[in-house]
Amino acid sequence: MHVNDTTHSGTGPVKSPKQLLSASLLGFIVPIVTIIGLASYVASGYKTSPGSTDMERSVNARIQKVGTVEIRDANRPLKTGEQVYQAQCGACHTSGALGAPKLGDSQAWDPRVKQGFESLLQSALKGKNAMAAQGGGAFNDLEIARAVVFLANKAGAGFSEPKAPEVAQ
User: Domains plus CATH for the chain?
Assistant: First the structure.
């Protein structure tokens, strides 16, 4: 008996090149998709949906106010220039930090004093160079003005301390 080798070729489950390509792709893609699906299923058990754990806290975070209003006693006694200096200005003007002119250093203050009180006050209220704006903080503008006069006068200026406005009766 004569056995023909060509009779046995193509007798497997894959009979054409198109079937071979399809089987190869499915054999590669199906396991990867299955692994990704299982991994996401397992990992999803540890995640909580946004707002599901503490609803009140998440609502408060979404509707929180943007600014605040602070009500101060308008009749409180005003601070002196020295008190404001010690509380607000002394940290930089005592040591000369960040180029601040030191208290009593007439050489550093002289060019600033020549610009006038109003210029110094605006620099203090709005900020200048490394100094942050002092207006709108813990002290009102009159108290900041008193601190400016205190600093300038310690360096030899002759500014008079601003007085509180008279209250209309």
Answer: 81-154 (1.10.760.10)
